[in-house]
Amino acid sequence: MTARVPHSPLADDVLARLVRVYPGGGNPHRAAEMVAYMKGVAPFLGVRTPERRALSRTVLAGLPRPTEADCTAVALRCWALEEREYHYFAVDYLRRHVRVCSSAFLPIARHLVVTTSWWDTVDHLAAHVVGPLVAADGQLATVMDAWIDDDDLWLARTALLHQLTYKDRTDADRLFGHCLRRAGHPDFFIRKAIGWSLREYAKTDPGAVRSFVAAEQESLSPLSVREALKNL
What is the distance between the terminal CA atoms of the chain, rounded to a whole angstrom? Predict the structure, then answer.
């Protein structure tokens, strides 16, 4: 997918401020450490999270609430920048303003998930952007049913994690079904996500998770089982 960046004067302001302010908080030594920790997924400026959030407040000071088009433009333009901190800014911005986004934003979220993919952005997008979009439009749950079977493991991970904050609104049948659909996946990130999603739902319905794991233990990986039962 080649995502089209909509016209947005607000995004012009945000990006102009962002590329002016963020580099000043960088540190080459920290940047090298961050690149190593994140397995070289992207270059870094070397801005620690607390400092980055303070710089973000400076960037956003006095700016109006965005529209969906503004959110799209900010996210896509940030993702087009190389340094990972700009992607983090976009994720934080979307988390803050996801309520202004409609179901039409899901293809943009998909683009972000599959582009420069690693857990540091994908997990937040799954739980705090894709999850709220699906919660607001139940018809999007069928898209999650497609993503869970996708060859892109990050889309599958997103489908597994999108209900992470739902608590008693969790569609347990869909959650358990998704876990079983990918139970045999060999990748660590899928197996971990299965366990994580079950462990989180266990805070709401521990009995259901215990029963599911007991019934499907032969299908689930040992990692998924350990993660699912960690707090039970």
Answer: 42
